[in-house]
Structures are given as C-alpha cells and as structure tokens.
Amino acid sequence: MNRQVLLSFDVEEFDMPLEYQFNIPVDEQMRIGIEGLNAITPILETVPSTLFTTANFANHCPERISKLALSHEIASHTFYHTAYETADLLKSRLRLEEISGQKITGLRMPRMRPVLMEDVKAAGYTYDSSINPTWLPGRYNNFHLPRTVYTENGIKRIPASVSPGIRIPLFWLSFKNMPYALYLKLCRQTIAKDGYICLYFHPWEFTPIEQFGLPGYTRRWCGPALVERLLQLVKDLSKDAEFSTMNQI
pLDDT tens-digit profile of 54-106? Predict the structure, then answer.
C-alpha cells in the first residue's frame, strides 16, 4: 500500500455554540455550515477527501452535496449533529445515498460518541471512524484502544491519527494550536510509522467564528488564515504520501 493521507471534514450544522450556552438559530447554523463549504473549495479542488455529512445538513443543500460526491467520498455523520437515536444510522445512510448517488459505507459519530459496532453493521456500513485513541479531558479516554486500523465485529475501524509513542492527537484542535512546524513533524512521523495518517476538520472552522462565544483554543486560526494554513499542509504532506478517501484504505 502506498503511503496515504486520509483528509476528512465533518460537514454539519454549526451547533457548537450551543455547548457553551450561546444560542444560535438553526438557519444560522446551516448558513455558516454552507459558508464553510464555500471557504474550503480551494482545498476540495486540490485533493480528494471524505465528507462525513449529517443528513440534516444535506437536506438543506442537496445539490451541493450531490456535486461534491462527483469528486469526494460522502460518508455519514448520522442524521442530526446534536440529537441521536440508533435508527438514525440507517436513516442517514439511506438519505445520503439518495442525495449523493453514492453507496455510503462509512460512519463517523458526531463528537466521536461511542457507538456499538453491531448497530453500525446492522445499518449497512463497512467502516467506522468514530475513535480518537487518546485522552481528551471532558470527552474521552481511549488510550486502551488501537491507534491504527483494526476490525471489530466485522467493521473496519479507522481511528483519527495520533502520534506514535505518547499519542499526541493530530485532530483539528492540534492543527490550530500547535506551532505549524511541530504539527507537520508529527504528521510525517505518523505517516512514516503507520503508512497513513487520518486527519479531520470542520468546514465552519474556515469561516470567521469569533463572535459565537467559543473558547479561544477552538477559534484560533479561523477563517481565510486557516484555509491558507491547511493548503500549506496539503502541499507539504503531498511530498510524503498520496491523498485518498477513507474507503480506499
């Protein structure tokens, strides 16, 4: 297998301010989500990616999702980003298949919530990317889980990448808050060790989000500056590996 960069985006309604008691109407959540998709167009035009999409968001811009499906993998981020019930696994897959014209094989739970692989398999998926195999205060402690691809109950599990050894997470918050040179070094170490790297971001990060009551560490490097930062990462990692969609690993 050639070395791979698995770049993904969680394409969703921008409901994160609700976690910090900042009221944001649904139409505003959708507007910012769509603006985020517009903002990352230069990245999506450069390399293939996997777009983990809520069916709720896709229902608000079906033509856009259908067009993106021509060049990228569409995967499920369940039906709604905040509310969830097990039936949403199947409902979201079927709706996203209808909109995208693709067979939907991948799942990522919002906020990396735990999910039973029996339920994922029953809903018709073949892989899941709902694990960050590290410790994140207030969220999860997954040090006991494998840090690379493994199989559980017939489902391929593709964790978000963490560095070898001490498992420094390489997700969106690290990209925002680490010095770029250090982040790039850790990415390259991970690719060299594992043969691939799995990175994820959110389109809304690439819009101005300073006014929504979010902690500073979540909105650092937002808007156009973050687009340029990620374009630089794409350019740099292209020297080490090929960009692929998640269903190609």
Answer: 999 999 999 999 999 999 999 999 999 999 999 999 999 999 999 999 999 99
Q: What share of the chain is helix, strand, coil (3-state, %, to 5)?
A: 45, 15, 40
- Pairing relationship of beta strands 135-136 and 140-141 according to DSSP bridges: antiparallel
Domain boundaries, the chain: 4-248
- As given in the structure block, the two tokens for residue 132 are 């960050």
**What's the whole-model pTM score?**
0.97
- Cα separation, 124 vs 197, in Å, equals 25
Residues 90 and 123 sit within 8 Å (Cβ to Cβ): yes
CATH architecture of the domain with residue range 4-248: Alpha-Beta Barrel (3.20)
Phi, psi of 61 (to 5 degrees): -150, 60
C-alpha of 11 from chain center: 8
Q: Which value, to the nearest 10 degrees, does the dihedral of the CA atoms of residues 86, 92, 95, 98 take?
A: -120
* CA-only gyration radius of the chain, Å: 17
The phi and psi torsions of 105 (rounded to 5 degrees) equal -115, -15
